[in-house]
Amino acid sequence: MALIVYWYDFICFGIVLAAIAASLWFILRRERGCIDVEDTAHNSLLLSRSESESLGPARLWTSCWRRLHPGWLLLTRSISFLSMAALLAWDVLKWTFMLVMIYFAMGIMASLYGCLEHSKKPTLGTGEDAVVNNVGDYELRQRLGVYGCFMERIFQTGAGAVVLTDVVFWLVIVPFISNTHLGLNMLMICMHTANAGFLILDTLLNSLRFPWFRIGYFVLWSCLYIVFQWIIHACGLTWWPYPFLELDRPWAPMWYLCMAIAHIPCYGVYAAIVKAKNSCFPSLFPNAFR
């Protein structure tokens, strides 16, 4: 056992358990399930004109820009995935990086399907309404609904996680933590720049929603990571990826509490980006933005 438990560590355990319980309560109270892909206005603080048009499963591959071929979204997602895969090949232990890559991989599959459907109806504009109305097979729509459920939640979780990890990296690790602990190098800098850059680029093009209550998935993801670290340290690992996660320091509960609270503004930052896109772009580009 490499993980020695002190009395103040139980405060840390309590903070994480409370975060898990609060997240589950929040999700179960507001979530309506994977099959029902149409959210009502009260479920989102980010309701926009594109959401009110109810694209349904087509929002997975349809751009928020009118007359923009789904292939452009496929191209950006493919470039993002391949670039991040090249960086990840050098460091396979990046938790958040892999989550964002999973989103781009799912986005590529959705965009490929969207391009296929778009090619079948070339005369019906951008194809989003045609796709929604012509997916007549009920079972196919159900499968697309479940797929979209997971894809959107991975997108929403990854967005919050990217903001949190980048804030910690640039505002805590780089200025205050010795390079010898984490081995800071150009690769780490590129990874903590690419994940946010690629995800924001995709956000500026996609039609995915960003309801506030799904911060619960983001909190659960972080709690899962912390529990994973506890388990592997209990099995003998002594190195912590983030020094403030160490449990053998009296101020550990303060760090855990601060990180728990930090999830709210971090998710809020990305929610603000999506809201700004849906609020400003229709005025700036009334004929191009849906």
TrEMBL record:
Cellular compartments per GO CC: membrane
Protein name per the record: Uncharacterized protein
Keywords associated with the record: Membrane, Transmembrane, Transmembrane helix
Residue stretches spanning the membrane: 6-28, 72-90, 96-116, 159-178, 184-205, 217-242, 254-273
Species, as recorded: Thlaspi arvense (Field penny-cress)
